[in-house]
Amino acid sequence: MVNRGQPSRDCLPCRKRKLRCDLLPEGCGQCRRARLQCHGYRDPLDLVFRDETRSAAQKVVGRQNWTLVAHPVAMELGWNIRARYAFFSVYVFDFSHSLGSVAPLYENASASDHLSASLEATSLAFMAIQLHTPALMHLASLSYLTAIRKLGQAINEVSKFGAEEILQSILLLDMYEKMVNRKPQGSSSWISHANGGMSLLGPRVQQFTSSLTGLQLSARLITALTVSSGAMAVRVPDGLLALRSDLDPFINTPKWSFTGILAHVVNLQADDRDAGGDGSIDLAERAERLDNELRNLQTALPQSWRPQHISPMRPDPLIFNSHYDIYLDHYVTQVTNGIRAVRLILNNIMLRHTPVSVSNSDSESDIIIRIRYITHQICATVPQFILPEAQPDNTGGQQTPVAPDKKP
């Protein structure tokens, strides 16, 4: 409160005109003589206290040439909170089916430990890329350094009860590297975190396979390392296939089966690059064998993964050929198209490495027809995500919600 003396009891017109009000009970004489409408006198109770704090603060700030927002529209949330909320709502709970372990582990994590720091770095990078904001990417890089430091301390003190949280942080930082660095070949950062996860998982396979969360994290690590090796055009690490065999009895999903074949395709691609034209027959035969395995996997997919074929009555420029397919969800579409994309790679290897003496026009045309057919299948998956009549969510643009996070 600011003491500005006893407030005047005069009526408003007299105060504005700076006249002495006669305070007559029947009405102000000054207003009557000036033919002004008198609104009466001030309530004595209102004169006892008057809060001038806001007015005084505005004057002080004004003298310092600052801008004061007297009535803020809403509370401003920090970018780390908004990014974390967006990452969970858009990516963890909606887009991805492989991050189910993040939420329960983060729920029990301290706000100052390595998992919270890793999640903050990854979510800030996610938001920075979505909004194309370099300033946010700078914040993400600072959080990344903090997460690396805290994770290093946790690894040195790892115990039986902290391994899952550490592996989750490793996978989040691996995701950070893939979002920030878009040139995998020749970049060790694309695989460094996954290799660290292998060192953590290897001696603790039995511990990780004893819980559902541990199995989910192990499967994600194997998948991340396989995909990273393929993107870098190198063979998968020697211990990866052995780890897969340890996990096979506990995991039986279409994606797990697909990534198992994918590991051999990655090795085939690396051998293809290193062969320099030698061993063409062997490469073509390996490619054909792996393509047959993927084709059999497609045939054995669950019935719920089968698409619904839609043939519109009228042609649409967004539909390739005369129909499109609607799948159960984005995850099913992603895995199915992943199988098809790898089959395209294998058929291309077969087309390039089948010797002229062995090949004939029929076999070459079969490969070309197969490539065209697989390509058409991939094109048929696109309209379900862009046609307004295909899904209700396609009628408008998706907005990223921003709301408070329950953790400080």
UniProtKB/TrEMBL annotation:
The keyword Nucleus applies. It comes from the Eukaryota. Residues 389-408 are annotated as: Disordered. Residues 10-38 form the Zn(2)-C6 fungal-type domain. Signal peptide: none annotated. Keywords: Nucleus. GO terms for molecular function: DNA-binding transcription factor activity, RNA polymerase II-specific; zinc ion binding. It holds the Pfam family Fungal_trans_2. The keyword ATP-binding does not apply. Residues 392-401 have a biased composition (Polar residues). This is Zn(2)-C6 fungal-type domain-containing protein.
